[in-house]
Structures are given as structure tokens and as C-alpha cells.
Write a structure and sequence with these properties.
Chain lengths: 304, 304
């Protein structure tokens, strides 16, 4: 007996002593890689945003806040910032509201729910780049699906590419189509997590189905809504492929967004300083959105 | 009496089903349109602009895609190589990191964890531009000298597509949480039998981590299959290493010529076939693994 327990003690002692060695053996390479491919680029990005550099040759020259000043004064860049914010909010609000609505509908014990859920979720799986090009077929000026239908109805065709409002609407609709599936699944999960007894108790007290929705379902969905909005805005503010393939930022730069502008600055305009400043601006916008979301939503839940 | 009222169709149920069915059709419409268009001849496609009806179904588009003459299979291979790589390495690092951060006890562990976690708020674009510069300035690669000057580094070469994003903090986090739910007794029992740490991870933990691993495989596969932005940044100049999303836009333009039609005609049926070809594997994956998709999305909400 005694021998066995001592053997066990020894093995445990060796086991404990191995912790630090093995821990650092695993974490050191991870931290090294992480410093090289995350920490270093993030810091360089910040430094580069204060410089002017083509990225091709030579060294960056320090220009202070000039890049940021340009971002906040140049009408082209201001337009890009505004567009990004407007797109991010529009897409986020529409896709979240729609996701909630569909989740509520699908949660009412409909038959064939799996099939409907698939129809709503599968667009999320598609490649943003490829489906944007398919959408471009729908809106092509000649031979496009929408214009062919219009022509067969003896209506004048619409040249979508030159009309700002149409292009904005198309980008929003396309992004919502691709983005609604994830939040819908999340809302469905949250709805299924609500205890049935809550509804039963309220029904005993004579609550109508509208009151059940207003005073039980919606308040209980607040935490999920915060999560959906915060994770959602990270996606919608980084809108890129939809704009690249549907409008290329046009007409006249009026649908251009930060991601596309960063891409153009880095690779077409050979202006890495502006591209870096742009990504810092985008990062700040994302941070602001997240903070505002948390503030508003937590205040809302306290109010209830 | 009671039976009668049960059998009566309530008007709000009819409305509910109508709304769900109609909206689901709208969601599925672009994909169904693409599928039908892809097996239509150009004549059939033009005949009914609102929805292509393949009177004489043809697999010609798919034959072109799968024929040896096209590069699609090469791009599929490239995409699969990337997917396999980005499942294996971040998965292994996630398991090792998660193990070290949950099962091993040593000083500094929690600081490392917080350091890694702090990166999760940072959007990818904040380090994308400098990472691109790092790829282009890689010393002694692609004609560069030891200081990384003079050549193009690993841009347009395989390493640029494989070297970034190997440490995925989200997966480390996910595995850390999962390890915490597994009783330590299993590991201790194995250690008494003389198993080392790697042996424990492989034989004891890996089978228990299967559900989480499945979620990782699915989401990582979908993400890499659709990845567009980074391959666009670093591999545009070398069609031999293009991934499917990147090659798609090039092929979409040349479809008409491949059928011996005048080059001025844009053959939309070919675009649709390419899109369907690119999306079908993901839809099949979703249909087979539906349970894990739902679990995965919900896991993001609960743990993330």
C-alpha cells in the first residue's frame, strides 16, 4: 500500500514539475509567431500611417498627421468614410431585423423548418466574390436578367451602373442576402433557449401573444442582439467584395468604401501611408461601433 | 366539436406559411437561377429571361470546367491544399495552446492568455498591409537580397498563401474552454500507465475533442474555400497558384470563346456553371453536417 501511494506521489510530483517546461515549450513558438505576424504588423501599420511610402523602393518618409488630415479633409476620402458608415449601419440594421423576424416565424413550430432554415442560411456559405459576380449578371446593362425582364414587358431598361441610389440599394440588398443567415441561426438558438414555463405562466395570467413577445421574448433576446450587432458590424464595416464587383466604388466614387480605398491606395496608387492610415481609421470606426452598441443595448436592457 | 376546430385551418397559419415560403424562395432564387442557367443552352437561357428553363439540358459548361484544358481543377487543387493546411496547422496549434493554457499550471500563463485574447478585437485589415510588405520584403526570396531589397519576395509564390494566420486565437480559446470541461482523471489514468503529454493529447483528448474539431474543420474549410481578399493581395500575378475564387473572375470572361462563339458575347450560362460548381461542395457539406453548422454558430455565440 505504502509503496504504491509513494509511487503515485512521485509521478504526480514529476507531472507538476513538467508543467512550466511543457507550457513554455508550447507557448514560446506560438508567441514568437504571434509577435512576428500580428504584433509587429500592427505596430508597423501604426507607424506607416504617419509616413509617405510607395512600398516599392526607398524608405518611408515621416509626414506626421498628414495622411489622417487628408482622410478628414479631402472630399474623396470623407465620402469613403461616410459611405462605409452608412453601408455598415444600413446592412447591419436590416439584416439583424430580418434575421430576428425570420427566427420568430420559424420558431412557431412550422413544418419543414429545416428546409426553410437552409434556404436562409445557405447564402452565407457562398463566396462573396463569386456571388457578387453572379449578381452582376442580374444587373448587367444589356442582356442582364432584370433588364431582359423589363424589355420583355416593354419597359425601358435601367442602366444601374450610372445611378448611385440603385447601386447603393443593390449593394445593400446583396450584402443582406449573404449576411442574414448567421444571425438568424443565432436568434433561433436563443429562442429555443427560452424556458417554455415563462410563457405558460404569463398565459395563465392572461397575457396576449403580443404581450408575450413584448415582455418576455424581446427582453430575453437583448444579450444575443448585442452579440449579433457587435460581431455583425465587424463584417459589415469591412464590406469589400460586394463593392469591388458590383460597382467598383462608382459611379464617381459615390459607393466607394474604406476596404476598397485601402486596397486601391496600397496596390494601384502605391501609397502605403494612406492605406495604413485608412486601416487605422477603419479600426477606429469598428471600435466606436462596438462601444456604442454595448452602451445602447445595455442601457436598453436596464430600461426594461 | 373540438376535433372540428383542430382541423380548421387558421388564417394566421396560412399567412405564416405564405410569408415563410415566399421569402425562402426569394432567398434561394439566385442559386436556383444559377443552377438552371448553368445547364441551359444559350438559346434556352435567352428565351425566358425571368427564369431559365433548360428545354434541352446540357452539361457542356461543366465539361469545359472539368476538361483538362481548363485551369479550374488546378485551382480546386490549390484551394484544397490551402484548406488542408489551414485546418491542420491552426487546429494543432489550437489544441496545443488550449492544452497549455488550461491543463498546465505555471507562472505567467494567464498573462499570455490575456495577451493573445487582446488581439481578437483587432480587425484583420489593421495588419494586412504591413504583412503584405513583409511578404514582399522577405530576405533572400524571390530575388531579394539579405535586406529584403531588389526582388518581390514571396509575392506570387506559395509561401505567401500559407504563412499567415497560422495562430488562430479563437481556436486556442475554443479548445481551452473545451479542455476545462473534460475531467482530469482520464489524463491522470493514462499518465499512470506511462503516457507522455503528446500521447495523452493524441489518445485521450483527441477522441473527446471530436465535436469541436468537426466544427473547426467545417468553418475553416468554408472560410478557405471562399477566401478572396488575401489571395488577391499576394497571388494575383501567378495563375498557377490561384485559388478558385480568384480564378473564377478570369474564367468568367472567357466562357464564350471556349464554345467557339464570338468573343464579344458574354456567356452567362458559363458564369452560372462556374458559380454553381464553386458553391455545390459547400451546400453538400452543409446538408450532410447541418447539425454541426448549427452547433458551431451557436458555439461562437456562447463561447465567443
Amino acid at each position: 500500500m505504502a509503496v504504491l501511494s509513494r509511487r503515485e506521489k512521485i509521478s504526480r510530483w514529476r507531472y507538476r514539475n513538467r508543467h512550466a517546461v511543457e507550457g513554455w515549450l508550447i507557448l514560446t513558438p506560438i508567441l514568437l509567431y504571434f509577435s512576428f505576424f500580428f504584433f509587429f504588423p500592427v505596430v508597423s501599420n501604426l507607424l506607416l500611417s504617419f509616413t509617405k511610402w510607395s512600398g516599392l523602393s526607398g524608405a518611408p518618409t515621416w509626414v506626421g498627421l498628414a495622411n489622417y488630415r487628408r482622410y478628414l479633409t479631402d472630399s474623396t476620402y470623407l465620402q469613403v468614410i461616410t459611405n462605409t458608415i452608412v453601408f455598415a449601419i444600413l446592412i447591419l440594421v436590416i439584416q439583424t431585423a430580418l434575421a430576428l423576424l425570420i427566427a420568430l416565424l420559424l420558431n412557431t413550430k412550422v413544418r419543414g423548418r429545416g428546409l426553410f432554415r437552409s434556404a436562409w442560411y445557405i447564402p452565407t456559405l457562398t463566396s462573396a466574390a463569386i456571388m457578387a459576380q453572379v449578381t452582376a449578371v442580374f444587373i448587367a446593362p444589356s442582356g442582364g436578367v432584370i433588364n431582359s425582364v423589363l424589355t420583355s414587358l416593354h419597359l425601358p431598361p435601367v442602366i444601374f451602373y450610372v445611378q448611385v441610389d440603385w447601386m447603393r440599394a443593390i449593394i445593400v440588398v446583396y450584402s443582406v442576402w449573404r449576411g442574414v443567415g448567421g444571425p438568424m441561426l443565432l436568434y433561433l438558438a436563443a429562442l429555443q433557449g427560452i424556458h417554455q414555463e415563462l410563457y405558460e405562466a404569463a398565459q395563465v395570467d392572461g397575457a396576449t401573444s403580443r404581450q408575450l413577445l413584448r415582455y418576455i421574448t424581446l427582453p430575453l433576446l437583448v444579450p444575443m442582439t448585442i452579440f449579433v450587432l457587435i460581431t455583425g458590424v465587424i463584417g459589415t464595416a469591412q464590406i469589400f467584395e460586394a463593392v469591388l464587383f458590383l460597382s467598383k466604388g462608382g459611379p464617381a466614387n459615390q459607393t466607394n468604401v474604406l476596404m476598397l480605398q485601402i486596397f486601391q491606395d496600397a496596390f494601384s496608387n502605391q501609397s502605403l501611408g494612406m492605406a495604413s492610415a485608412g486601416s487605422i481609421v477603419l479600426g477606429l470606426i469598428l471600435l466606436t461601433f462596438s462601444i456604442v452598441n454595448i452602451r445602447i443595448m445595455s442601457r436598453g436592457s436596464v430600461g426594461n | 366539436m373540438q376535433k372540428k376546430s383542430e382541423n380548421r385551418v387558421k388564417p394566421e397559419r396560412v399567412l405564416l406559411y405564405t410569408v415563410i415560403i415566399l421569402t425562402s424562395i426569394v432567398m434561394a432564387f439566385p442559386l436556383l437561377f444559377g443552377l438552371a442557367g448553368s445547364i441551359s443552352t444559350i438559346e434556352d437561357y435567352v428565351r425566358t429571361p425571368w427564369f431559365p428553363i433548360p428545354y434541352t439540358p446540357t452539361a457542356q459548361n461543366y465539361e469545359i470546367i472539368l476538361s483538362g484544358g481548363s485551369d479550374v481543377l488546378l485551382w480546386v487543387r490549390n484551394t484544397l491544399i490551402r484548406a488542408a493546411w489551414y485546418i491542420t496547422i491552426p487546429g494543432a496549434i489550437g489544441i496545443l495552446g488550449g492544452y497549455a493554457l488550461s491543463r498546465l499550471r505555471f507562472r505567467g500563463r494567464d498573462n499570455v492568455f490575456l495577451f493573445l485574447l487582446s488581439s481578437m478585437m483587432m480587425p484583420g485589415i489593421v495588419y494586412m498591409v504591413p504583412t503584405f510588405v513583409m511578404m514582399a520584403r522577405m530576405p533572400l526570396a524571390g530575388g531579394n537580397d539579405i535586406f529584403g531589397q531588389g526582388g518581390s519576395g514571396v509575392i506570387n509564390q506559395w509561401p505567401a498563401l500559407l504563412i499567415t494566420g497560422l495562430v488562430n486565437v479563437y481556436y486556442i480559446f475554443m479548445f481551452r474552454q473545451t479542455f476545462a470541461t473534460i475531467p482530469i482523471d482520464f489524463e491522470e489514468a493514462a499518465r499512470v500507465d506511462g503516457a507522455g503529454t503528446l500521447r495523452c493529447l493524441w489518445s485521450v483528448y483527441l477522441p473527446m475533442l471530436k465535436p469541436v474539431l468537426t466544427v473547426l474543420v467545417i468553418f475553416q474549410f468554408v472560410a478557405i474555400w471562399n477566401d478572396y481578399t488575401w489571395p488577391l493581395f499576394v497571388s494575383t500575378g501567378n495563375p498557377k497558384i490561384w485559388t478558385l475564387s480568384l480564378g473564377f473572375q478570369y474564367l468568367a470572361l472567357g466562357g464564350a470563346q471556349r464554345k467557339g462563339l464570338p468573343g464579344s458575347i458574354t456567356d452567362y450560362t458559363f458564369v452560372f456553371a462556374l458559380a454553381t460548381f464553386a458553391i455545390l461542395p459547400l451546400i453538400v457539406l452543409y446538408m450532410v453536417m447541418q447539425r454541426f453548422f448549427v452547433e458551431g454558430v451557436q458555439g461562437f455565440a456562447i463561447k465567443g
